[in-house]
Amino acid sequence: MKAKIIGLFKEGMGRLEYALRGLRYPSDELIVLCIHSTPADRMMDFVQQVQWITKHFKPLHPNQLDAYFRGELQEGPYVLFTFDDGLKNNRHAAQSLESLQIRACFFVVPAFIQAEDSETYYRTHIRRHIDEAIDHETEDRTAMRLDELKQLIQRGHMIDSHTYSHLLRAGDDSSVRHREIVESGSWLREHLGVAVNGFCSPIDTSISVDELAKKMIAENYRYHFTTFPGHNGVDKNPQLIHRRNIEVHWTKGQIMYALGGWDLFRWQKRISLFRSLGS
Fold first, then answer.
1. Rounded CA gap, 70 and 240, in Å?
2. What residue ranges define each of the domains in the chain, with the CATH number in brackets?
């Protein structure tokens, strides 16, 4: 019931904000979308979402991130599609994006990929509460194989780190943080044969990343994708990339809310605290 009420609130507020303001962003803004499960029977909805989003934002290829953060791209606003965890059903989203000439970044968890029973791993360490009315197929709860990840790379997508086990927490022992941050990238480079330049912190960046972890991420990755929504065009900080969470089963009003500005103020304190780490 609570989730339904929140959904209705976002639906109404999103449509109201869009009616009043539209989605007006400067030409150098970048909206990074964070998406999780993408079930096969939701692909028609997903394609419609993407088509609507790309009426307002120009798709950014993951290999354009360097140019964006150097301030060389001024013909947006832009949107980058990213997917968390490495779920097998993300293959459907990749194919749908390819049909629209779009490529994405997939943040994967090596321990999830390697797990003998990846569904149990997913339910235990990544997402304990699953709505099986949405994620009703095995592929909605299990990991892509290495060969499937390699196929995504061959088709122009990017694979980056989402920690080693999805268990990174602020205050962890330094050896645990090294495994979660450094070894996750090393494992992906070794098994996929590609550069791994991006790191996506899990759960809530304010919970999973402390001063030492923030420093370790900056020393090992060019990009840190956080859980904080916001404007990437303000200071173009590759170590504080803001993302907006959306899901394929959301309504258009809920998508409008996620892409708008009315929800941003409640994140400002957490973002300020993150900025102050190590300063």
1. 14
2. 2-276 (3.20.20.370)
